[in-house]
Amino acid sequence: MAAKILTGVNCPVIMCENDPETVAVVKAAINYDKVYFAIPDVITSSSASTENLKMDPLAIHTEDGVLFIDNRAKTFAGDINFCDESELKKQWAAKLYIHNTSHCIAAYLGALVGVRYLHEAVKIPDIYKIVHGAMNEMLTMLKLRWDIPHDFLDWYAEKELKRFSNELLFDPIKRVAREPLRKLELEGRLIGAAQICLSMGFVPQNILTGIVSALLFVSEDDTDKHLLFMRKSLPTKILLTYIVGLRKGEVLEMVMEERYPKIVAELETLIKNNRVIQ
After folding, report:
1. Given 30, 67, 70, 226, which residue has the most CB atoms within 10 angstroms?
2. pLDDT digits (tens, 9 = 90+) for 111-149
């Protein structure tokens, strides 16, 4: 439907999706070259405070964020940061690994203990420690792998921790944690991040915890709810290779298989100590 509507346009098409590859997909779908990637540096909740929902059941909370757009789309006007390729790559690396990785880990841990909103999860010391640890692992990886200014990365990480703790956003755990199999894509924010850390010479223990917490995520109305059945029915090795897609014998597959039972036990303790009764 979207391709049909866009076919024949003569203005730039901006992709604000969490994947630069969407640009190529849309170019092919509508046979049009003026499609550009953009990075919205903003958290927009899908809900609101109880007070605001009483006034309007469709209310949501959002930050006043920033939008970074490929500078080839400069025909657009407004308060927009048009960026060259190097700046876009810097902003995308920070968003994918510092924001997205830590954000979803916080959500999966929050789901395990039964809280409703992300800021409630980050307030729990045991969860904050893991989220902060994952963010530090991402900082180490980014500083080793890419030529990105370290002061920018440190500033970005501090900014993200404050955002996750923002009590005004009322960002639902279910929104951030939804579709865990998508979050577990091989090149993505969890598996991909862990692979890069291993290639840099260190084991990202907190990110491994995040991967396991994603596999433990349960929500009856989630499109990936069948993951619960697969996790309970399949041996760990089969789950990691046939479902998650890790290659047999690769470093991450071996590390995950070895550490999976211990991480599950640690998460069970975390749940026992922090479970919230709704």
Report:
1. 70
2. 999 999 999 999 999 999 999 999 999 999 999 999 999
